[in-house]
Amino acid sequence: xxxxxxxxxxxxxxxxxxxxxxxxxxxxxxxxxxxxxxxxxxxxxxxxxxxxxxxxxxxxxxxxxxxxxxxxxxxxxxxxxxxxxxxxxxxxxxxxxxxxxxxxxxxxxxxxxxxxxxxxxxxxxxxxxxxxxxxxxxxxxxxxxxxxxxxxxxxxxxxxxxxxxxxxxxxxxxxxxxxxxxxxxxxxxxxxxxxxxxxxxxxxxxxxxxxxxxxxxxxxxxxxxxxxxxxxxxxxxxxxxxxxxxxxxxxxxxxxxxxxxxxxx
Length: 265
Prior knowledge:
TIM Barrel; eight-stranded parallel barrel; two-stranded antiparallel ribbon
């Protein structure tokens, strides 16, 4: 396993500036959290690529800024909007390809809407995944609080729906905690389709904090990763309210490397 970080940890610092700051701190593995349309253009992704090349770094995943819009754009009862949404999300897939990135992450359907059945949701997700595959990237479903993925049972159901290789799951530990779920239950439900991890810690009140600063049981969690034979990356993803100084992010990475570089996996 490798330890990396999301540029979203520095939001609302500009994406390219976040990448530069974190690269200068020694990070070599990133999730790029895009924040607006112009950042998907080739000239902008080329600027990001030059920063990565200077730091001998790479991108393993990208996160769309339109996550909160996916219920309406991709998973409503209006089929034509879904067809247009497919073309829209091609921009993310192309951006990921330009950055030599493996994964694009979606939140999916919000609990606030009940436009379609689970079966229809899975069908559309797989069509989106096929489109991602054509660009050479893999689509991942994230577990997100108050969304369709906020239930290990959904992971099991989705796993049974398709055995194809061109899609997978991303587990976000803070989202599992917010939803009152054990993160390890998602790992066991998703099995070999768990491709990516967003990791954080939390305090006794459930607030998101940096790894090593809270009460999260990392020993148990990494044992669960070993149980499912996980070999992917572990990406620090927290809010800017989760720390005081950016230097603390490097300390958190050092804490995690005791697990990711221990030879357990």
